[in-house]
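Pilot study result, target chain (130 residues):
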Amino acid sequence: MKKTHGAAHDPSVKDLADQTDREFFTLFAKRTGMYIGYTDLRGVLAYIEGYDMASRRCGRPCLEGWREWLMKHHQVGSNLVWRAQVEQIALPDWDFTTPLTTEQETHVLAVLFELLDTFLAERESAQPPG
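Predicted structure:
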């Protein structure tokens, strides 16, 4: 029987190696502080970018096509990196120069994880099983 992390408490928790990116980010969104020690926007974005780079180095697509997906589904600047696109979606009236309040950061994170889940769900459903 395969050992799972946290199985004694929750038998539905898969081993990290067996999780899809969508499953991992769902867990990460619920407990960012557990994974990275803090919950601010800058830290979460840096972690996601690092996760993406590591995934790509291991031959997994992770956020491949994410920026383009954001442009296709939302009116965002094509000259922006994905993190700025998410901020533009979450805070359409924000000027990109005024520091975000804690409430604005929390809102951007909620929008980020909702968008990311939708993107990954669409990609999973487009992939053939197996």
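One observation from the pilot: The chain has one domain: 18-124. A full batch analysis is planned for the follow-on phase.
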